[in-house]
Amino acid sequence: MANSDSLLASMGNDARELVKRTWWVFLVGGIAMLLFGLLAFVKPGIALLVLSMFFAASILVDGAFNVVGSISNRDKDGWWIMLLIGLLGLGGGAFALLNPPISMLAFVLLVAIEAIALGVFLILLGWRVRKATSREWVLYLTGALSLLFGLLVLLRPMQGGISIVYIIATWAVLLGGLKIYFSFKARSLAAHGGARLFR
User: Fold this and answer.
1) Residues near 63 by beta carbon (within 8 Å), at least 6 away in sequence
2) What 8-state DSSP symbol labels residue 103?
3) What is the CB neighbour count within 10 angstroms for residue 8?
4) Cβ(136)–Cβ(129) under 8 Å?
C-alpha cells in the first residue's frame, strides 16, 4: 500500500510539473481560439471557405504548440496526452488547409469530430492532473463543452451556414477563454512554486 501511495504521489508531482512548465501552451492555444471566435462573431458573412481555413489554422497552431510542449517535457507523467491533443490538432488543421474546396457538410463533420475528440482528451488530461490540483474542473468543463458542441453539430449538420458560424464562434470563445484562465493559474503556480495548483 505504501508503494502504491508513493507511486500516486510521484505521478501527481509529475503532472504538476508538466502543467507548470507548459502553461504557455494553454495560453497560446486559448488566444488562437478566442481570436477566431471573436472574428467569426464580428464577420459572420465571411465565406465559409475562408472561415474554415482560418479555423483550421487556429487548430494547427494550437496543435503545434501542444506537440512542442509535450515533447519538451516527455519525462513527465501525462505528456503523451498533450501529444495526442497536439497531433489531433495538426492532423485536423492540416487536412482542412490542404482541402480548401471541401464541402460545407464535410467541414461541419470535421469540426464536430475534432471537438468530440478534443473534449475526450481534455477530460482525460483533467483526470491525470487531479492529484495536483483542486481545480481540474476547468479541464473537465472545457472538455465537456467541446463534447457537447461536437454532438450538437453532428445532430444538425445541415443547419444554415451563419448558424454554424455562430455555434463555432461560441465554442471557440468559451474554449479559448477557459484555456487562457487555466494557463494563468498554472503560470501562477510556476512563479510561486506552490504545492498545489489553484488553492
Assistant:
1) 85, 86, 87, 88, 89, 90, 91, 92, 93
2) -
3) 11
4) yes
The end-to-end CA distance of the chain, in Å, is 28
CATH number for the segment(s) 14-190: 1.25.40
Give the model confidence (pLDDT) of 91-147 as tens digits.
Answer: 877 887 787 655 556 567 777 888 888 888 888 887 777 666 666 677 788 888 888
Domain ranges of the chain: 14-190
- φ and ψ at 45, to 5 degrees? -85, 0
Count other Cβ atoms within 10 Å, centred on residue 15.
25
Full-prediction pTM beyond 0.70?
A: no
Runs of H (alpha helix) within 45-103: 48-71, 79-98
* Contact yes or no for 119/147 (Cβ under 8 A): yes
Cell readout for 84 is 495526442
Contacts of 164 (CB under 8 A, 6+ apart): 48, 104, 108, 153
Cell of 18: 508538466
pLDDT tens, 147-194? 888 888 788 776 645 667 787 788 888 888 888 888 887 777 655 555
Rounded CA separation 135/39 (Å): 30
In this structure, the number of other CB atoms found within 10 A of the CB of residue 124 comes to 15
How far is Cα 33 from Cα 103, in angstroms, rounded to an integer? 23
Amino acid sitting at position 38: L
C-alpha cell at 113: 469530430
Which one, of 147, 151, 146, lies nearest residue 175 by Cα?
146
